[in-house]
Amino acid sequence: MSATTVASLFLALFCLRSIAAGQKNVDIVVLKYEGLGYSETVPVKEKYYFFSFCLCSQKTPDPERSASCNCASDVRGKKASDSIPRALFSASCIHNSNPLKCLTTGFKSVQDDRRLLYVKVDIDSRTLTSPSWQVIPNNPQKTSSKITAYTRSGDIRLDYVVFSSKNKEALSQKSKRFNRIKEFERKAKKTSLTWKKNRSGVGNTLHQIKDYLASKSNAQALKPLSADFDLDAFRSMITQSHNRYRSMHRVRPFEYDQTIERSAQQWADHLADQEACLKHDPMRRYGENLFFFGGSMFPPAEAIAESVTKSFYIEGNGYNYNGFRPVEIHRVGHFTQMIWKASERLGVGVAIRKSSGQKSGSCLPNKGLFLIYVVVKYDPPGNVLSRDQFLANILPPAGVQ
């Protein structure tokens, strides 16, 4: 059995340079797109997507030929074969625009009245969008948009962020936090659990938790994909267990949120589809804790739920509630997100699949087993890396100073 947890993250944005009054610089960062379906890519699987953007002061059928528009250079996406079922780009592209890894473009010194944002999508020399140029929302936060296209689904879905230099003051303070958060992400460690057969209590260490899972699996083995393993009950138990720990720290219980669950479920399904080691959802709208586990049979849902939350909570052993050391956050990130006072809602995603037995990562078992991926997302996200935030949001248990 192998199980892993990964600490939660919070995403901050960045600021742009200042320019002359009445003008602005604008950057566009594409975070995800969904275009052609699998069968549609066969004749163009080695061809690249291309994205064109223009900013205009008035509507026009052809922005590239209009004097009322500024158009950015065309930017190349991924190959069609690498964009199935969707193309994803790291949220770090918002801060560091690496042309080899990111899908970004920009406008220099655009007049303030040019606010209509047009997009056109091509693959090789073929225009996919219909009509060719279409207006999409121009918002200073992550936006999801559908544009009509010559695809089997009838549209192309686009997730993107638009940054203007007019956002500078509001974003500048967040930029500093982003750098610290990226350092945290690089240092975040993954803890592996392996199967043993001894103890019956959940325990207070990872070794004791793995023994607990093994003993429960031996005593009350369930077929993972059968109706005996109740996913709805599992989600409820995860929530109840979170709230039991939160009550110990005198913070309000989480409310369960279906919207957050959908986001968590999408990422759990993605990890299971890829049969992947744990990695974070690049669309980091929420705080996130992850858990992974594998075995030929599963213990009852209650045992796994209790083990998931206990593995998060034991990171708080010896935690200093009167101080803040960012370099140690990678050791306690699950715990601090779990009891973060300002976080109010959570959702749980669960995906179970039969392993192919082809080991594609160090975290995966060598032989075919059932794998369960658990994604817990939190809103508002916790672990905001500042001393004031941690002292205000991480409260000691009753009776602890």
Radius of gyration: 24 Å
CATH topology label of the largest domain: Pathogenesis-related Protein p14a
Biggest beta sheet attributes: 6 strands, antiparallel
Spans where pLDDT lies below 50 across 5 or more residues: 1-21, 168-200
Q: What is the name of the CATH class of the largest domain?
A: Alpha Beta
Q: What class, by secondary structure content?
A: alpha+beta
What is the N-to-C order of secondary-structure elements (H for helix, E for strand)?
A: EEHEEEEEEEEEEHHHEHEHHEEH
Strand content: 25-35%
Q: What is the count of structural domains?
A: 2
- CATH homologous superfamily heading of the largest domain: CAP
Element layout with pairings:
Layout lengths: L3 E3 L16 E12 L3 H4 L6 E9 L12 E3 L3 E5 L7 E2 L14 E9 L4 E8 L2 E2 L6 E3 L6 E6 L6 E10 L3 H20 L18 H14 L11 H18 L6 E2 L1 H17 L12 E9 L5 H13 L15 H11 L5 E10 L15 E10 L7 H7 L8
Parallel strand pairs: 13-15
Antiparallel strand pairs: 1-14, 2-6, 2-7, 2-12, 3-4, 3-5, 3-8, 8-9, 8-10, 11-12, 14-16, 15-16
Helix pairs in contact: 3-6, 4-6, 6-7
Question: Features of this protein?
Answer:
signal; 6-stranded antiparallel beta sheet; single chain; CRISP-related; Immunoglobulin-like; 26% helix; 5-stranded mixed beta sheet; 2 domains; disordered N terminus; alpha+beta; Pathogenesis-related Protein p14a; globular; 8 helices; 401 residues
Please provide a written account of the structure:
It is a single chain. By secondary structure, the chain is α+β, with helices and mostly antiparallel strands. The chain has 2 domains: 23-170, Immunoglobulin-like (Sandwich); 189-393, CAP (Pathogenesis-related Protein p14a). It is 26% helix and 26% strand. It has helices at residues 38-41, 168-187, 206-219, 231-248, 258-274, 301-313, 329-339, 387-393, and strands spanning 4-6, 23-34, 48-56, 69-71, 75-79, 87-88, 103-111, 116-123, 126-127, 134-136, 143-148, 155-164, 255-256, 287-295, 345-354, 370-379. Strands 3, 4, 5, 8, 9 and 10 form a 6-stranded antiparallel beta sheet that branches. A 5-stranded mixed beta sheet has the order 1-14-16-15-13. Strand 11 and strand 12 form a beta hairpin. Helix 3 runs antiparallel to helix 6 and helix 6 (301-313) packs across helix 7. It is globular. The two termini are 38 Å apart. Keywords: Signal. One of its GO terms (cellular component) is extracellular region. It holds the Pfam family CAP.
